[in-house]
């Protein structure tokens, strides 16, 4: 009975007591994080370091990313500040209504709700954010002078951080590569696409991914390449039918039900026809019409720049077995080559049409690759590189130089480089010709013919010489 009578007063008294404890805790936390702030501002560094820190202008300070660290600490500080403001204003409100305070009852439920939503949740978030900060290791990582893992404080989403963190071998052993840990990699331009990447990596582990390959491709094209791996299950079309047998699949339009169409303008393969003005894509128009594709590289055309596969193979009879088709297309070059018992891998991006799906459904190998990356083949391995429809007069000369040297790297001595209908402005032709000729390949064919009034086509069949140094 006595307890009951005193209840409202006691409860409020206890309430303010709790608040005081919470505020006290906050003061401690804020002090700790202020220490971080001082640290990041260079207060604990030696004189010389301070000079370097303030006048060096570098964001990366002796092996750690001080900007990312400061951003994380700043985030925690602002969370705590707003929590503190909220609590203080609540107390002020109580002060104002002091007279009322004795008389009003706040229900336990209200009190619980207040603590949960206004105090514990923000405090928890701040706590997690603080925990997430990886402080630089003074002794360095491994044998290096790096003080923290690259980019580790740049991303907030836990899944990205888990991905980036190097995975030490179990039991401290050396793995088959002879290294102590495995680094998952991430294109450095991902830093520029932080928001999009965090959206991409925001999923429940083990559940279905969003149907967001288009976001992934956007990230890749913009230099966030390689993209991180994900731990969610990719979606497939509603009803995946078994593909046609290989003797049919090469030259038959695949079943549209085997493609997820939601990110394309079209909803089936027939819609991708060049006759349809609303087909939605602009590169390689007509590629999805197999009766047109069937003519390529096997029938004479009026253009001297069109070489035939049989002529190319005749240069090196029996020697051309594997190769790369670098371009935009639906795999027709690879299909024709397959008929000649040559295995061709076709690069493909899904530029508003399902190029990868089409190539794979034809029974050929699509390589999902952007221009950003070094080719995933070893030196001196390919018998043939064929390129068409991709590189033309838009491409930066320096970029092209890096690409051509990479092609030269993977092409074996005696391998063929088939430049197929490269085109550019007539006035730029000399620059591009120099690009191709600088490697001193043997010229088997070299044809230039006009494309339009001020544009020209260039086709060439070149052979990489031996390079025994
Ligand atoms: C406060 O609660 C007591 C009993 O729990 C009740 O008698 C009283 O009327 C309440 N006062 C107000 C202002 O609600
Ligand atoms: C680190 O240094 C030690 C001793 O100097 C050496 O034995 C070891 O191989 C080094 N580890 C790496 C990964 O370089
Ligand atoms: C493809 O091969 C299968 C068996 O290997 C055969 O039954 C079928 O008739 C062939 N299709 C065509 C179009 O040749
Ligand atoms: C293509 O042209 C060449 C010579 O110009 C000729 O020998 C060959 O028979 C022609 N091939 C076809 C399929 O018309
Ligand atoms: C490809 O290989 C098959 C089986 O070895 C053979 O029958 C066929 O003649 C070859 N085709 C060509 C064009 O060499």
From TrEMBL:
Signal peptide: none annotated. It is a single-pass membrane protein; Single-pass type II membrane protein. The chain crosses the membrane at residues 21-45. The keyword Membrane applies. It is found in: Endomembrane system; Membrane. InterPro entries: Prob_Methyltransferase, Put_SAM_MeTrfase, SAM-dependent_MTases_sf. Keywords: Coiled coil, Glycoprotein, Membrane, Methyltransferase, Signal-anchor, Transferase, Transmembrane, Transmembrane helix. GO terms for molecular function: methyltransferase activity. GO terms for biological process: methylation. GO terms for cellular component: endomembrane system; membrane. Residues 66-104 form a coiled coil. SUPFAM superfamilies: S-adenosyl-L-methionine-dependent methyltransferases (SSF53335). Belongs to the methyltransferase superfamily. This is S-adenosyl-L-methionine-dependent methyltransferase. It comes from Escallonia herrerae.
């Amino acid at each position: 009975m006595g307890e009951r009578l005193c209840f409202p007063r006691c409860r409020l008294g206890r309430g303010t007591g709790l608040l005081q404890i919470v505020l006290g805790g906050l003061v401690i936390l804020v002090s700790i994080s202020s220490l971080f702030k001082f640290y990041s501002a260079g207060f604990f560094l030696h004189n010389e370091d301070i000079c370097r820190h303030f006048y060096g202008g570098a964001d990366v300070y002796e092996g750690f990313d001080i900007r990312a660290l400061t951003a994380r600490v700043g985030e925690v500080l602002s969370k705590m500040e707003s929590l503190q403001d909220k609590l203080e204003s609540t107390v002020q409100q109580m002060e104002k209504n002091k007279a009322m305070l004795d008389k009003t009852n706040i229900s336990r439920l209200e009190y619980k709700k207040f603590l949960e939503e206004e105090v514990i949740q923000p405090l928890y978030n701040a706590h997690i954010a603080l925990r997430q900060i990886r402080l630089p290791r003074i002794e360095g990582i491994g044998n290096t002078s790096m003080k923290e893992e690259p980019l580790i404080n740049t991303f907030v989403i836990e899944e990205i951080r888990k991905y980036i963190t190097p995975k030490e071998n179990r039991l401290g052993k050396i793995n088959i590569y002879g290294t102590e840990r495995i680094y998952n990699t991430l294109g450095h331009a991902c830093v520029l696409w932080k928001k999009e990447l965090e959206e991409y990596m925001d999923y429940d582990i083990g559940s279905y991914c969003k149907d967001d390959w288009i976001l992934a491709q956007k990230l890749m094209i913009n230099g966030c390449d390689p993209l991180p791996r994900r731990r969610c299950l990719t979606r497939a079309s509603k009803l995946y039918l078994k593909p046609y047998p290989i003797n049919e699949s090469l030259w038959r339009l695949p079943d549209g039900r085997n493609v997820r169409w939601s990110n394309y303008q079209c909803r089936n393969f027939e819609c991708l026809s060049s006759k349809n003005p609303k087909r939605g894509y602009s590169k390689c128009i007509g590629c999805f019409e197999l009766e047109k594709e069937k003519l390529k590289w096997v029938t004479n055309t009026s253009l001297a720049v069109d070489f035939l596969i049989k002529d190319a193979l005749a240069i090196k009879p029996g020697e051309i077995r594997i190769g790369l088709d670098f371009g935009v297309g639906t795999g027709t070059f690879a299909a024709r080559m397959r008929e000649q018992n040559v295995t061709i891998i076709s690069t493909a991006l899904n530029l508003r049409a399902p190029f990868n799906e089409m190539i794979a459904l034809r029974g050929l190998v699509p390589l999902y690759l952007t221009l950003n990356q070094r080719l995933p083949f070893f030196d001196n391995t390919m018998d043939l590189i064929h390129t068409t429809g991709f590189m033309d007069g838009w491409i930066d000369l320096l970029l092209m130089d890096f690409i051509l040297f990479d092609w030269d790297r993977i092409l074996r001595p005696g391998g063929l480089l088939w430049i197929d209908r490269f085109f550019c402005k007539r006035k730029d032709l000399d620059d591009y010709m120099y690009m191709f000729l600088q490697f001193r390949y043997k010229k088997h064919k070299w044809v230039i013919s006009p494309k339009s009034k001020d544009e020209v086509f260039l086709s060439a069949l070149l052979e990489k010489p031996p390079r025994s140094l």
